[in-house]
Amino acid sequence: MNVTVLYDRFFELYGKTEEMPRYFFAPGRVNLIGEHTDYNGGFVLPCAIQYGTYLLIRSNNDLIVRLASTNMDFRTEIPLAELSKKVNSQWVNYPLGIFDQFRQMNIPCTGFDMLYSGDIPNGAGLSSSASIEMVTAFALSVLLNATHLDMLDLIKMSQRAENEFIGLNCGIMDMFAVGMGKRDNAIFLNCLTLEYKRVSLVLDGFRLIIANTHKQRGLADSKYNERVAECQLAVTYLSHEMSISKLGEISFMQFYKMQECIPDELVRRRARHVISENQRVLNAVSCLLKGDILQFGSLMNASHESLRENYEVTGIELDTMAGAAQKINGVVGSRMTGAGFGGCTVSLVREDTVEKFIDQVGKEYHAKTGLRADFYQTEVSDGVREIEVV
Ligand code: GLA
Fold first, then answer.
1. What is the model's pLDDT at position 216?
2. Closest ligand 1 atom, residue 172 Cα
3. Closest alpha carbon to 29 in 48, 56, 15, 9
4. What is the DSSP string of 165-225?
5. What pLDDT band is residue 204 in, cutting at 50, 70 and 90?
6. Ligand 1, atom nearest to 173 Cα
7. 20 to 30 A Cα–Cα from 152, which one of 70, 161, 172, 257?
């Protein structure tokens, strides 16, 4: 990100005052394994990536919040009293959802001039929305001097903003990874208890490659909420046998014995995905601790298969992309990452195979879908933070 260009744009939009804007950054995230388990109280293993959202922010005395972005044409000015209203389906609803959280917590707000700039591809399943929410929550907590809020509070506020203001019943994984990310570490999170451990991810001789299908997600949000509801239905059936409130509370062995009490075959498959995926995360973490990258890769492949067969959130683009990757010698594992229905795959690729991977997957993907893929070699980065400008 070119800081000078961003400051110039900020001053062009809002003019200069005595106060200098402050500069914040929140990363996006990629989930290595543990998909659609978070809202089921299961395990996940995401990490923060080097791409993210930058924010320049300065308080003003006008009782107005001004929002602009270098990525979108739409910008707006909203009086403090009207901050709780949604603006159509515009990107500003993500920051507005956060302002609404501060209001609900009775934290008095001043006016602000804000300029966002992101380098996460939109709609690619790399959490551009959680990144905008978390950079806003973190910056506001600093500028409003809300020192009683810790990182977990900001994470929970961002999740509530997404659930209540945006209307997507997502889990906590994205915000958690964006908030708690640490360079060269994945985050092993229990979404039921919110206990977490950082697991070292020094991938000697291997690279993490993210591949973007460029399949727009369209109906993703409504399908997402549909999956959430199907899992709740599975819990209702299973709780006739055992007292549970989330699928993440039962082991695969328990599920195996009780699954017949779910009469609906489709709902049974949804539960099977969640519960088996949970076990895969546990196995994947022990692989990382032992340095068994090959076995880790096999678990990634198995995760994709279950998301395709049981959870049905992949689709032709993601299946083609992951399938093309998995058959290359030197690719240890490849799977869809994020909500699915489009977006990205994540692959673990031997360093000497990266070029071949990009060439071969790109060609096969284009031949079968007519779409052009994009590839990103990402570093595993730190979470949300303020950046000192010298
Ligand atoms: C989206 C949601 C997350 C999680 C994933 C699927 O990224 O925001 O909470 O449910 O999908 O694992």
1. 75
2. 9
3. 48
4. II-----SHHHHHHHH-BTTEEEEEETTT--EEEEE---TTEEEEEEE-----TTHHHHHH
5. confident
6. 9
7. 70
